[in-house]
Write a structure and sequence with these properties.
Layout: H1 16-23, E1 31-32, E2 40-44, E3 55-61, H2 63-70, E4 77-81, E5 88-94, E6 101-106, E7 109-116, H3 126-142
Helix pairs in contact: 1-3
């Protein structure tokens, strides 16, 4: 039997202070990426949440998508297990040098956290992005 993904508003999983700390800039409050959907939320130092700004995107995903990603069947990315976050977690590290995704499952809720560099500021390294995503994911899990 497959349990449904819990109904969670992605914007409730992080605070503006947590986002600001991770982004190393003053973030605006989380904003739904699609106004009618609570599944995707973005924090940014700019109104547009666009490529010029550092940003964090949290996406509520299905348990099936979590399991599929964990399987490692996508040749365009490497899967790296992360202990100590939620019930299970792993990084999806794209082979194109883009920012990784941290994918987390806690109970019946699965979500991704991604820190994205803006083009205006010095880019974070992969290790910095991973550490920031881990900190954010731990904060999000604590709210579930």
């Amino acid at each position: 039997m497959t349990l449904p993904t819990a109904d969670v508003d992605a914007c409730t999983l992080l605070t503006t202070a947590e986002a600001s700390k991770a982004l190393e800039v003053s973030s605006l409050p989380g904003k739904r990426m699609v106004a009618s959907s609570p599944k995707v939320c973005g924090w940014s130092d700019g109104e547009a949440i666009g490529a010029n700004y550092r940003r964090i995107v949290v996406t509520i995903t299905s348990l099936a998508a979590f399991q599929f990603g964990k399987s490692g069947n996508n040749p365009k990315m490497t899967i790296e297990t992360v202990p100590g976050i939620g019930d299970e977690a792993y990084y999806e590290i794209l082979k194109t040098s883009e920012s990784p995704f941290l994918v987390v499952r806690k109970g019946n809720t699965a979500f991704t956290v991604r820190v994205l560099n803006g083009s205006k500021l010095k880019a974070f390294t992969l290790e910095q992005e991973k550490a920031k995503e881990a900190d954010l994911a731990k904060a999000a899990v604590a709210k579930l």
